[in-house]
Specification:
The complex is a heterotetramer.
Chain A lengths: L1 H30 L9 H10 L5 E2 L2 H19 L19 H22 L2 H32 L4 H7 L8 H4 L1 H15 L23 H26 L6 H21 L5 H7 L3 H11 L2
Chain B lengths: L6 E3 L18 E4 L5 E4 L1 H4 L15 H13 L1 E4 L25 E4 L7 E5 L4 H13 L5 E5 H6 L21 E3 L6 H16 L5 H7 L1 H11 L11
Parallel strand pairs in B: 4-5, 4-6, 6-7, 7-8
Antiparallel strand pairs in B: 1-2, 2-3
Chain C lengths: L4 H17 L4 H28 L5 E4 L10 E4 L1 H20 L1 H7 L1 H19 L3 H20 L4 H32 L4 H6 L8 H15 L7 H9 L2 H26 L4 H19 L5 H21 L1 H4 L3 H26 L14 H15 L5 H15 L3 H25 L13 H25 L8 H11 L5 H27 L2 H18 L12 H17 L3 H20 L5 H29 L14 H15 L9 H7 L4 H24 L8 H21 L5 H21 L3 H32 L15 H15 L6 H15 L2 H26 L15 H19 L2 H12 L8 E3 L2 E3 L4 E3 H22 L4 E2 L15 H4 L7 H7 L6 H21 L6 H19 L4
Classes of the chains: A mainly alpha, B alpha/beta, C mainly alpha, D alpha+beta.
């Protein structure tokens, strides 16, 4: 029975993510004074990619890479409690806590890296090395923030962290621990890989980065993962810093706003070089993280 | 990298087929770490030489119609400017023309693109590259050809080095006439292409696969230094 | 019983009768001399046997029928017998060694030789000081005669320098004797001792002159340039006599005459010894001439023995043991080295590598050098242990520090020399070894081994079972002619038997979790890692004895209950691993830094143990817990030894190169097993010391920072390595730092993490190194950018590396995640947030090199010359897959290791542990259910894979260069594989963290040693007058010192 | 500029001097003197900027005309050095040692006209035409229209008018 609910949740999340992506693209287009794609464009792209007729494979890992990648994304979904106080949509969060989710992100990265590596395209590898390099320092402020809220709430269980934030906006971590929230939100920019931290894919410079060789169903899987991962990271931040959600409506609104923020930043700022972005996370965000631990 | 050379190049004989072989494609005798030697033939060993196969459309009509609709609404263009017309493609994405509205997006890699735009005249040298890129796209794939040069040679009709008819070398879905066509004409071309796809006529890839030998013969007729596999996977 | 007087009679008689033979028949004259020597040796040996076996009384022999002081009296006691035997055995061996030399020079030389030993014998036996003077003169002159008869120019000049110096010395001695007679009225030594000469008016001057002459006879630093020149220029055979017989005799003179000076003279003698010991060993560092190094070492050693003599009060009844074990081992080893030097006949130690193809000579050289260093199982080890422990017992820590510092200097040059000896040899010069030249050295090494056993038994510290490994090693050494296959089976059988006895029969019944775990890592790991040995061809000479020694050293560590056993096992393991590393092709330089750091660490540990002994008076390991006053010191000193082994930041520079250059199957042994000995040591240390002593509470904090920074720097450095073994080696530094951090948290969870992670690290690091070594076995290159695309050729190795890096990176669902999860909890509960954050950061940095490892080897385009590679040998794969199974089992069900460890730890750290409910582990912070995660992951992965498979069943498999290219296509794999300098942008951003400033500072220290040594060395001008001046100045300085002038 | 021309005339045998503009002259010189003259211009007169090297096919005379265009950057002067070489087995001394990029021009000339420059780097590698196996296409005896028709599948139905003929017909239909 659990599985049915989990699949239902997954279905909702995927659809929500696709719609959100479409809407956000349209908003970005508006910022550039364009009309932009239809809001259902992500659906069509996905369908089109799954409907590609001819495919090839560079080898076993090229084939399995997208599976790993999607497993990483779905895994985060599976271990994340979605709706507070709702047993049905708490998924398998009883199997692990925040740390599990933090480390589950790596599975997807590893899958992408292995798949792209087996593809053998130099651009893919350049993208992967950039992504990994940037990721090392992106995680630093986030780790500090996590430690900070773990000290604050004396727990690493997401459900309990959400529970502690119930009772109005003044109980949110955003209000009770603004420094940690600040650090984490800055590292969120790096996690979502919109500009200024999108040198990993770096269109025009390093054509597309890691997924250069992927196509058809493989690409479709990567896109699906991107949709799930984006929403789930937003939900993670919502749970940790913005009071969680008690029903789907609040979840949609909060997730949208959180997701909107890196998109907004990306629409405004130009791109960092990779060594600049590696270092950037060690300055202001890390300083905030350290302060968050000191002043908790 | 002070790398020891562990291979020895074998000079090819002076036969006709080796005339245009480049040194990097010479066969070489390679010494394995255990001391055995064997021959590596770059052209055969580095590339897959399987021929393309036609892919039948989905047998369920409705599904195929739906998929065709999706394909028509999501056209990913290979950003590879082949001729003078490529300058006309960039304004497409600006607010003034905004091709995104029609689901047209640019993609930097052939693997993920559906549409290849041949933007103007093609010299033999460029044709070779264009064929490579076209073959690296995945089926179903479409070709849009801009300008009179691709139709009948245009102002280069009697040039020693510029092809006259693109459709002898790859299946073309839509021609956009003009020298050069403006972005508006391109948009119209996209509309035409979408219509064709929706009608199920966008089967260029299958056409290419079915008439592979004919296309290859035409290509090889003018590309004399054919130092690549017959089909670039 | 043949009376000792016959020694003189026979020697003299032979010497004179040799004159008749002249040139007639040199063989007969040599035979005569040899038999005379043999008989003399027999006499002394007989007396020694008599003293040892039954209570033979010391006898006095009075010549000319009068009683002393009116006659020359000889004494034959136990000490005399020992010294005489030593001298005469050396004489006998020297005679054999100098066989062709003596024959060439004729009867004259033989006469001089005979007379020299006669003189030395009498000097030992006589109790009359004037007689002593006379025979000392005789032996000096005969020695000079021996040197000068060489008829080499520099030998003659050094002989004359010797003559000048000994002339001055004998003047001083003679004046002293005259004064003594004038004031004391007797030349009989016993009388002189009894008469308290010091308190007689003017007697102190006499005593001073006599004793300073004896001291000068011992060639004290720095008034010893003349002696060094003799060592350098004389034939090594004569060098052996000078160092073995003459110096031993001189020591005995000091021993005999020291009572005259009484207690007041002990300290000055000790200080003289210190200056000699430190000074000459320090200068030895900078030497390149083999014989001169031996000279320095010899003088240093005499200095050490002088120190011991001066400390005889503190050593109490252990004095004899210490004195003789050190003296005899050095006498044998030094003589042996001189003889080998004569065989090799090269001045420069850099040229000693011509013995590369003579394994026998290498073994002999090794035995002698290690004996000099005092490493187990050689006798000087026990001597040194007792020396240090007894000094510690009486609180003489200055002396301990000096002795260990000097020993360290000595270790530096001896080990450098040993390393050079094994250097690769391009020179094809063939070394001819004559039987009579090698024979004395062989005898001497046998004597050393016998003496080792005797000292060990005599010391009473060792039970017989500690000799089993040596016996096995010797057996394997004797069977070295067998092919690798058989020896490998034997080694595996031995280790299996060991692990059966230790783990199954001992620890499991005792339910000693810690020892079970480490026994498992050390021994089961050893069995697994011995498997690849089957792939080696040929004989692998010397490999298996060393492996057995190393693993039994490790087993000894967990077995140890006393600090002595621990230290013994530690040194044995260090030594064996050093010798294993040095077998690698280019490992000479790096193994040198390994052993230096290890020795320094071991000496620190030694002092620490001594300090603990000083306070508690017990050498039991458990007694460490009772150390209270010096707890911090003991803790730091002992911990440094372990930190060196786990290559913490600051002392890590030995590790990467040593791992890299060791043999491919040795590397996993060291990296996954040997380093754990440091972890084990730290656990033992912390369990006994940190828990109970509040005083030590700050040190774990510092250790925690060291661990965190090691983790960071190790991982940072790993990502820039292009050598695949080096990459994994640097990652070891990182992981060890991680474990150190876990331990230093001193909390239940921290320890749980560290101990379980030790197991996990063993599993995956062995896995990675085995996989990598298996790949190197096929590709014959270690450069990571020269590989690529091997997944198609070596899929099984790929699986190994994949599992290895997933575990290393700590991704769920594999067990590496358990470490990360517990770590987060531990850090937050402990409150070490910033250190923890650094460790997490380094954990993520680990991703970079993980990916580099797997990508550069397995992914990307395959290189041309690897297109036909086969999967690596099954012997590399078997242990890999056993390890993978291990990882998988504990990944699915981590409870099987975590729960027992938790139970064990709750004895020491109550509370704060993991709470198990079913398969869910939880702390007060979070929870984690590995089994469920694994199931969910597997289910999800399976479903997604099936979906993908259904959607794209028909895929065209393409070749390596079917990648996207729009214009020019790739041409060669080398240019398309993005591998070399993969993380250049990261280097640009954070490369400053990986700057080699630690390596540079160590190199700076080493260079400054050399520079200082160079400056001091200018003191020895090589000029006879200067040396004479040195002697005079030395005497003056000494006088001033004695009389409070300073 | 006049001065320079005079200097040159003193030192070299100049067959013809054409003043194109006040600051642009063309001088003709014999084949054997050409490279010497170019070197002189570069080193002594400081025409340090090499603009182009081009050829004209005088099929009637059986000659190729080569022009080296040089530029004096500070005085803003241009000078073209012309020389004629035989059309049969055309070879010319290479000037790549003066400017590296001359090699590229020479490579192009080799491909398009078949003029050989022995010693010039990569001169035999294809420049624009990959796998060309006909006579060099810029030679006037190469019929490009015929070649194109034979090779590139001309689309039937295309009609082409010679502009001169066409205009003539249109403007003067009666003639």
């Amino acid at each position: 029975m659990k599985i049915v609910y989990v699949l239902l949740g997954l279905f909702i999340i995927i659809n929500y993510g696709l719609l959100q992506a479409g809407v956000l693209r349209r908003i970005t287009a508006r910022v550039g004074k364009r009309i932009g794609v239809p809001f259902y464009q992500p659906y069509i792209d996905l369908i089109k990619n799954y409907a590609i007729r001819s495919q090839f494979s560079h080898g076993v890992m090229f084939y399995l890479g997208p599976v790993f990648r999607l497993s990483g994304g779905v895994g985060i979904f599976l271990f994340m409690p979605l709706i507070f106080g709702n047993e049905i949509f708490s998924n398998y969060s009883m199997a692990g806590d925040l740390i599990l989710i933090m480390y589950f992100m790596f599975i997807g990265m590893l899958g992408m890296a292995l798949g792209a590596g087996e593809g053998g395209h130099p651009y893919s590898i350049i993208g992967i090395t950039r992504g990994l390099s940037q990721f090392t320092t992106v995680e630093v402020p986030f780790t500090l923030a996590v430690i900070s809220i773990a000290i604050q709430y004396q727990t690493l269980s997401i459900t309990e962290i959400v529970a502690a934030q119930q009772g109005g906006i003044m109980h949110w971590t955003l209000m009770t621990n603004p420094l940690a929230t600040g650090a984490a939100m800055l590292s969120f920019l790096g996690m979502m890989m919109y500009a200024p931290f999108n040198v990993v894919n770096a269109p025009q410079e390093n054509p597309l980065g890691p997924p250069t060789e992927f196509h058809g169903t493989f690409l479709g899987m990567l896109q699906t993962n991107r949709v799930i991962l984006g929403v789930m990271e937003a939900i993670l931040f919502m749970n940790l810093f913005f009071g969680g959600a008690t029903n789907w409506g609040i979840l949609f609104i909060k997730a949208f706003l959180i997701y909107f923020y890196p998109v907004f930043v990306g629409a405004v700022f130009p791109r960092y070089r990779i060594d600049q972005s590696i270092r950037w996370f060690l300055y202001l965000p890390t300083a905030l993280g350290i302060l968050a631990i000191i002043f908790i | 990298m002070a790398e020891e050379k562990n291979y020895k190049i074998i000079q090819p004989d002076n036969s006709e087929e080796n005339k245009f072989l480049k040194p990097e494609n010479y066969k070489r005798e390679v010494t394995a770490p255990d001391g055995n030697t064997f021959i590596v033939d770059p052209l055969n060993d580095y590339f897959c030489d399987a021929k393309p196969q036609p892919h039948a459309p989905n047998t369920i009509k409705v599904v195929e119609k739906f998929l065709n609709w999706a394909r028509s609404q999501s056209i990913w263009v290979l950003g590879f400017g082949t001729g003078c017309g490529s300058i006309e493609i960039y304004p497409l994405m600006t607010p003034r023309f905004d091709a995104y509205r029609f689901g047209v997006q640019q993609r930097p890699t052939p693997r993920q693109s559906n549409l290849m735009i041949i933007s103007g005249y093609l010299s033999v040298k460029t044709l070779k590259r264009a064929i490579r890129s076209y073959e690296q796209m995945q089926s179903p794939k479409f070709v849009m050809a801009l300008g009179s040069c691709t139709i009948n040679g245009g102002m280069y009709w009697d040039s020693y080095n510029t092809i006259n008819r693109l459709d002898h070398y790859m299946p073309v879905d839509v021609y956009v006439a003009g020298c050069m066509p403006r972005p508006e004409a391109l948009l119209a071309g996209f509309m035409e292409l979408k219509k064709r796809i929706r009608e199920g006529k966008g089967e260029g890839a299958n056409q290419y696969a079915e008439n592979f030998d004919w296309y290859k013969a035409n290509q090889k007729k003018i590309i004399k230094d054919w130092n690549m596999p017959d089909y670039n996977w | 019983m043949v009376g000792p007087i016959y020694i003189i009679a026979i020697s003299l008689g032979t010497a004179f009768s040799l004159g008749f033979f002249k040139k007639a028949n040199r063989n007969i004259s040599f035979g005569l001399m040899f038999f005379a020597m043999a008989f003399v040796t027999f006499i002394s040996g007989q007396w020694l046997y008599a003293f040892l076996s039954h209570q033979q009384e010391t006898i006095q022999i009075f010549t000319a029928g009068f009683k002393p002081p009116f006659s020359i009296s000889l004494q034959m006691g136990f000490h005399e017998a020992v010294f005489l035997t030593m001298i005469n055995v050396l004489g006998l061996l020297s005679a054999i060694y100098l066989f062709d030399h003596l024959k060439e020079k004729g009867a004259n030389m033989m006469m001089v030789f005979m007379l020299l030993f006669m003189g030395l014998n009498v000097v030992v036996m006589t109790r009359d000081i004037f007689n002593l003077f006379v025979f000392l003169e005789i032996s000096s002159i005969t020695l000079v005669g021996l040197i000068i008869l060489e008829k080499k120019q520099d030998a003659i000049s050094s002989g004359f320098k010797y003559l000048i110096a000994s002339g001055i010395i004998s003047q001083i001695l003679l004046i002293g004797i005259i004064a003594a007679y004038y004031y004391g009225g007797s030349l009989f030594i016993n009388d002189m001792v009894d008469s308290n000469l010091l308190f007689v008016k003017g007697g102190s001057v006499a005593v001073f002159l006599i004793l300073i002459a004896v001291v000068l006879e011992l060639k004290p630093f720095p008034a010893n340039g003349w002696a060094l020149d003799v060592y350098q220029s004389a034939t090594p055979g004569i060098g052996a006599i000078v160092s073995g017989a003459v110096a031993t005799t001189s020591l005995f003179i000091l021993y005999k005459l020291l009572p005259i000076g009484g207690d007041a003279w002990l300290l000055p003698i000790g200080i003289t010894g210190v200056i000699s010991f430190l000074g000459s060993n320090f200068l030895g560092i900078n030497q390149k001439n083999a014989n001169r190094i031996l000279g320095y070492s010899s003088i240093g050693q005499v200095g050490l023995l002088m120190i011991i003599m001066s400390l005889s009060k503190d050593l109490g009844d252990k004095f004899e043991f210490v004195f003789f074990s050190i003296l005899i081992s050095h006498y044998l080893a030094k003589a042996g080295l001189f003889w080998i030097s004569g065989i090799i006949n090269k001045d420069e130690i850099g040229q000693w590598n011509i013995i590369k193809n003579k394994p026998g000579l290498i073994v002999l050289t090794g035995v002698f050098m290690l004996t000099l260093l005092g490493l187990p199982p050689f006798p000087s080890f026990y001597g040194k242990w007792e020396l240090i422990m007894n000094l510690a017992h009486s609180g003489n820590f200055t002396w301990i520090a000096i002795i260990l510092l000097g020993s360290f200097f000595e270790a530096i040059y001896l080990l450098r020399w040993f390393g050079k000896t094994l250097m690769n040899n391009e020179n094809s010069e063939e070394l001819i070894v004559k039987f009579h030249k090698i024979f004395p050295a062989v005898i001497s090494s046998f004597l050393i081994l016998m003496f080792s056993f005797l000292t060990a038994r005599w010391s009473g510290l060792m039970s017989v079972k500690y000799f089993i490994p040596f016996a096995i090693a010797l057996l394997l050494f004797a069977l070295d002619f067998l092919p690798v296959f058989i020896k490998n089976i034997m080694a595996i059988a031995t280790v299996s038997w060991y692990s059966y006895v230790l783990i199954y029969q001992t620890y499991i019944p005792e339910n000693d979790i810690l020892r079970i775990i480490f026994g498992f890592i050390f021994l089961i790991g050893a069995i697994l890692l011995l498997f690849p040995g089957f792939t080696f061809k040929g004989k692998r000479r010397g490999f298996y004895p060393l492996v057995i020694l190393m693993f039994s050293g490790l087993a000894g560590l967990i077995e140890a209950r006393t600090t002595f056993q621990f230290f013994f096992a530690w040194e044995m393991m260090t030594l064996a691993s050093y010798l294993l590393i040095i077998r690698g092709k280019n490992a000479k330089k790096t193994s040198f830094s390994y052993i230096l750091f290890s020795m320094a660490g071991a000496f620190m540990m030694f002092i620490g143990f001594g300090l603990a002994y000083f306070e508690t008076g017990s050498i039991s390991l458990n007694a460490l817990a009772d150390v209270l006053i010096y707890a911090n010191w003991v803790y730091i000193l002992v911990a440094v030894g372990f930190l060196v082994k786990i290559a913490s930041l600051g002392v890590h520079i030995w590790l990467p190169d040593s791992y890299t250059e060791a043999d491919d199957d040795v590397t996993p042994m060291i990296s996954s097993i040997l380093v754990k000995s440091g972890v084990f040591g730290l656990i033992i240390l912390m369990l006994s010391m940190s828990l109970k002593n509040a005083a030590s509470s700050n040190i774990p904090y510092i250790l925690g920072w060291i661990g965190a920074l090691s983790a960071l720097i190790g991982n940072m450095l790993a990502i820039y390595q292009e050598d695949v073994k080096k990459l994994v080696a640097y990652s070891s530094i990182g992981i060890m730092g991680y474990i150190l951090f876990g331990l230093s948290m001193m909390s239940h969870l921290g320890w749980l993490t560290a101990i379980s992670y030790s197991i996990v690290h063993f599993l995956y690091k062995a896995l990675l190194f085995l996989a990598v070594a298996g790949i190197i076995y096929r590709t014959k290159t270690r450069n990571i950018y020269e590989m690529g695309g091997l997944i198609k050729r070596m899929p099984l190795s790929f699986i190994s590396v994949l599992i290895g890096i997933i575990t290393l990176a700590g991704m769920p669902p594999l067990v590496g995640f358990a470490g990360k999860w517990m770590f987060y909890n531990a850090v937050i509960l402990k409150g070490w947030y910033f250190q923890g954050a650094i460790v997490f950061f380094s954990g993520i940095v680990a991703f970079l090199y993980c990916f580099k490892l797997i990508h550069n080897i397995f992914l990307g385009p395959i290189k041309d010359n690897h297109r036909k590679l086969k999967e690596t040998s099954v012997w590399w794969l078997i242990p890999q897959f056993v390890l993978i199974i291990g990882i998988m089992i504990i990944s699915v069900y981590p409870k099987i290791i975590l729960e027992p460890i938790g139970l064990y730890l709750s004895m020491y750290f109550p509370g704060e542990g993991l709470v198990w409910a079913g398969t869910t582990a939880s702390t007060s912070l979070g929870y984690w259910d590995a089994t469920q995660i694994m199931m969910v992951f597997a289910g999800m992965f399976g479903v997604i894979f099936i979906i993908l498979f259904l959607m794209s069943r028909k895929v065209q498999v393409v070749e390596q260069f079917n990648i996207v290219f729009q214009a020019e296509r790739p041409e060669r794999p080398e240019t398309t594989h993005y591998a070399h300098n993969m993380y250049a942008p990261y280097n640009k951003a954070l490369g400053f963290l990986a700057a080699p400033f630690i390596t540079n500072s160590w190199e700076f220290i080493y260079e400054s040693f050399h520079a200082i040594g160079d400056q001091i060395r200018k003191f020895y001008t090589g000029n006879g007058q200067t040396y004479a001046l040195h002697i005079v100045m030395y005497v003056v300085a000494f006088y001033l010192f004695i009389n409070g002038g300073f | 500029m006049k001065e320079i021309i005079n200097n040159i005339q003193e030192k070299f045998k100049i067959s013809e001097v054409t003043e194109q503009r006040e600051n642009q002259y063309f001088i003709s010189v014999e084949k054997k003197d050409t490279i010497q003259l170019v070197t002189y211009l570069k080193d002594i007169e400081k025409f340090t900027n090499f603009i182009l090297l081009t050829a004209v096919d005088w099929i009637e005379k059986g000659q190729f005309q080569l022009t080296y265009m040089l530029n004096h950057p500070s005085k803003k002067l241009d000078i073209g050095v012309r020389t004629f070489i035989e059309r049969e087995n055309a070879t010319m001394d290479s000037a790549h040692h003066l400017w590296e990029h001359v090699a590229t021009f020479q490579r192009e000339l080799k491909e398009m006209f078949g003029i050989d420059f022995p010693g010039s780097p990569r001169v035999d590698e294809p420049f624009l035409l990959e796998g060309w196996d006909n006579i060099p296409p810029m030679r006037r005896d190469f019929d490009t229209k015929k070649y194109s028709e034979e090779t590139y599948f001309p689309r039937p139905g295309r009609s082409t008018n010679d502009p001169a003929e066409h205009m003539k017909k249109k403007l003067y239909p009666n003639e």
